[in-house]
Amino acid sequence: MKVQGTTKSVVVEQTPAALAARVADRFLTRLHARTRNGRTAHVCLTGGSMGGAVLAATASDPRVSEIDWSLVHFWWGDERFVERNHPDRNSLQSREALLDRIPVPAENVHEVAAPSDGVTLDEAAEAYAAELARYSSDHGPWPSFAVCFLGVGPDGHIASLFPDRPEVTVTDAAALPVRDSPKPPPERVTLTRPVLNASKRVWLVLTGADKASALGLALAGASYASVPAAGAKGRRRTIFFVDEAAAAEVSPELIDRDY
Q1: Mapping DSSP to helix (H, G, I), strand (E, B) and coil, where does residue 147 land?
Q2: How far apart are the first and last CA of the chain?
Q3: CA dihedral 112, 116, 117, 121 (to 10 degrees)
Q4: What percent of the chain is predicted at pLDDT more than 90?
Q5: Tens digits of per-residue pLDDT, 84-93?
Q6: Residue 92 domain-assigned?
Q7: pLDDT by residue (tens digit) across 138-155?
Q8: Edge-first strand listing for the sheet containing 237-243
Q9: Cβ neighbours of 27 (radius 10 Å)
Q10: pTM of model > 0.85
Q11: Total domain count, the chain
């Protein structure tokens, strides 16, 4: 179906493992297309079990050696304001799954500051916004991500934009501090909707029957304030990559069987 000029579709695989492999394959295809002529690619990563599974599948794909990783920059849609070696840290998970296994320059990995860097939560968000602004695009003081990965919670949250909270409606900032998160840990930094939606492609990856309701609401056009996943859209394409369990409430006509 078409939503505000962007194609929104659903790609289904039988199992989470098969889904991770398929997303990794498409990810490498997009990176190769972007970088083969020397163009820079900015990528926004996500945490969670599927975020890590996709990156691990990417690292295991033989085509990973064909990418010029010096042209790829990595960011995160949100980060938990904990130490860099804390298991809750999204960037730590990403490093273990992929980033430490590829020759990406250190300066191309843009992490949110940690408490031990001597900054407050607010300062961490401000610093992340300033770092984004160094790579401003035609779409704002932030890069336009070639691919933006997003996980989706059972409540429909994306990044650390949770339902019925003020952060989800903010449009005049690139990054925000989040306090008293309904999901631990309580302090986080999140990108805002304008940054996420400036991406060329938004890929939402979700598995499990507990995500079926959120997926159904997002596809049905629910209010993004109450179901943030409903408001995620890439400028060129928006794809929900899901397993069969999560796809239980998806209308067959929405499933893209050719992608």
Answers
A1: strand
A2: 14
A3: 50
A4: 92
A5: 999 999 999 9
A6: yes
A7: 999 999 999 999 999 999
A8: 2-3, 6-13, 237-243, 201-206, 147-151, 41-45, 72-76
A9: 24
A10: yes
A11: 1
